[in-house]
Amino acid sequence: MRVGVLTGGGDCPGLNAVIRAVVRKGVQEYGYDFVGFRDGWRGPLENDTIPLDIRAVRGILPRGGTILGSSRTNPLKSEDGIRRVKDTLAKQEIEALIAIGGEDTLGVAARLSGEYGIRCVGVPKTIDNDLSATDYTFGFDTAVNIATEAIDRLHTTAESHMRVLVVEVMGRHAGWIALHSGLAGGANVILIPEQRFDVDQICAWVESRFKIRYAPIVVVAEGAMPKGGDAVLKDDSLDSFGHVRLSGIGEWLAKEIERRTGKDARTTVLGHVQRGGTPSAFDRWLATRFGLHAIDAVRDQHFGTMVALRGTNIVRVPLADATARLKTVDPSEYEEAKVFFG
């Protein structure tokens, strides 16, 4: 069998571990041939490929990013996109396709599989950890560790200058990174997209910390919004999946805190630092297991499925279910964190 592999959407630590596991087991145990598609769905659209064999995946386990490249290309937006993808798969003699990505990449895979007969298996990838069908996605643990380390470091500089430090982390619709890193890093306020925030209440918490000679840390997800306000956008442009570009809630909030309290407030935007670099041990473990089980699903011809973590087990779920809804922070979990606010 000849199998295609692609990585779509934002890069994250652990992608190379998936590719390595897919190829190693597929070649060694099943005798499959592999073709890598460059830059997500752009590869099948433009027949842009690289060979994937055991030699190609040697040494990539600890590397961040993806050796295949990635993009937010959406073949469903192109008038002849489906035909071009099918033509490429036919030319390359691809019998099955493993798509590694988040909501958008896997949403395309679900439609290609369900409506157009393309034999796809999905692997969940999003540092936001917002796919409902799996307990965790790889990349999330690394992002939380990076954000937590940054918060740890910011505590000392905040205390030295007695200023408010606002830390903006990733999280478009789900606040998992903010919640986990904020709790782990001892933040005094955590703001997430699922719960609109009251600026006056934040300022009250900030001032209460200064009364005990303690400089507060505020962690805010990029998609968090104030009551009665909207998300802060980088610009008005949309990507091929219709997403706006979020950026700036941290800076906006710091200015509001400074204006209302008179306290010096600064912003640190972690941005793509959370995506880059070496994956954590947990993410290497999870990504490797996902890859091993994805190629098993191909062997079993369980197409139209995605591998998922349930407890400590890897299971298969329908692709359509995997992308049906986002996994967001439960209000009860956010309430737990409020014990440490202010």
Automatic annotation (TrEMBL):
Pfam families: PFK. Substrate binds at residues 126-128, 163, 170-172, 222, 266, 272-275. Gene3D superfamilies: 3.40.50.450, Phosphofructokinase domain. The record marks 104 as: Important for catalytic activity and substrate specificity. It catalyses: beta-D-fructose 6-phosphate + diphosphate = beta-D-fructose 1,6-bisphosphate + phosphate + H(+). Mg(2+) binds at residue 103. Diphosphate binds at residue 10. It comes from the Bacteria. The keyword Lyase does not apply. Pathway: Carbohydrate degradation; glycolysis; D-glyceraldehyde 3-phosphate and glycerone phosphate from D-glucose: step 3/4. Keywords: Cytoplasm, Glycolysis, Kinase, Magnesium, Metal-binding, Transferase. InterPro entries: ATP_PFK, ATP_PFK_prok-type, Phosphofructokinase_CS, Phosphofructokinase_dom, Phosphofructokinase_III, PKF_sf. The keyword Nucleotide-binding does not apply. NCBIfam families: PFK_mixed, PRK03202.1. Homodimer or homotetramer. Belongs to the phosphofructokinase type A (PFKA) family. Mixed-substrate PFK group III subfamily. This is Pyrophosphate--fructose 6-phosphate 1-phosphotransferase. The lineage of its organism: Bacteria, Bacillati, Actinomycetota, Actinomycetes, Kitasatosporales.
